[in-house]
Amino acid sequence: MKIKALLAILFSVMLVCSLAIISNAQTSPDKEQKINNQEKDDDGEDDEVSPEERKQVKISAKQARKTALERVSGTIIEEELEKENGRIVYSIEILDKDKKVFDVEVDAETGAIVNVEEENEDDEDDDGEKQKETKKKPPQI
Question: Are residues 111 and 56 in the same domain?
């Protein structure tokens, strides 16, 4: 009789734990989405471009890549559409022949190059974390 009671208690505990895990798994994406929506970049602006803001984009990613590669020759290693200083830009990272990485920002509405910076991840901040040091690339003549 004691074995049956012990098995019933064990089964009940397992059932409660299973329900708690399932319940938590179903609500996790919502929590994660809220956290992602609250993330801000260094200048306090959202990085994400909303669907309404995407309608303002006038040039394609292909056009932005071509413009960026005309400015900095090399291989594109990363690209994204983001808001930077209130402006929607294609941020395109290019690895040049000297193994330097440049971040080229192309305005998504006009196609103009907004900013070109050399990224240097060798420097560390006070907490020992790597920090990007940027150097402006001189304008091409």
Answer: yes
